[in-house]
Amino acid sequence: MWCGLTGDMNPVHLDREYCKTTRFKDIIVPGIYVLGFVSATLSKLAIGGIYASQDIRFMQPVYLDDTITATSTIIDKLEAKHMLKFLTHCVNQKGETVMDGEALLFIQRTRSYPSAIDHVLEKG
């Protein structure tokens, strides 16, 4: 589905027979799709936060039957810029790191979520 939405028709994401001839030996999930799990963790930690940047390192391939667990941890507060810096990390069901990196989020204060945002900024 992701490939159809984005137009990413790389055969490593679509063609099992082709993949058998590659080092992966089977279809792999697009890395940017895996990054979506990180985005979900960030949206739970900082409601209304806006991505400013993400540095990503893809460490291992993710296969169609893998179970991915994503975590994001606040590592710095840039209060003057209303930003938070996060360590982002994804592991598969074997505990292998498949992706890691760092993200910067712009934290908005809104009428709808002022206490949630302030709570994130106040965490030690």
TrEMBL record:
Molecular-function annotations in GO: (3R)-hydroxyacyl-[acyl-carrier-protein] dehydratase activity
Source species, domain of life: Bacteria
Residue intervals of the MaoC-like domain: 4-79
InterPro entries the record matches: HotDog_dom_sf, MaoC-like_dom, UPF0336/Enoyl-CoA_hydratase
Keyword Cell inner membrane carried by entry: no
Gene Ontology biological process terms in this record: fatty acid biosynthetic process
Keywords: Membrane, Transmembrane, Transmembrane helix
Keyword Membrane attached: yes
Transmembrane segments: 32-52
PANTHER family for the chain: HYDROXYACYL-THIOESTER DEHYDRATASE TYPE 2, MITOCHONDRIAL, HYDROXYACYL-THIOESTER DEHYDRATASE TYPE 2, MITOCHONDRIAL-RELATED
Protein name: MaoC family dehydratase
Lineage, highest ranks first: Bacteria, Bacillati, Bacillota, Clostridia, Eubacteriales
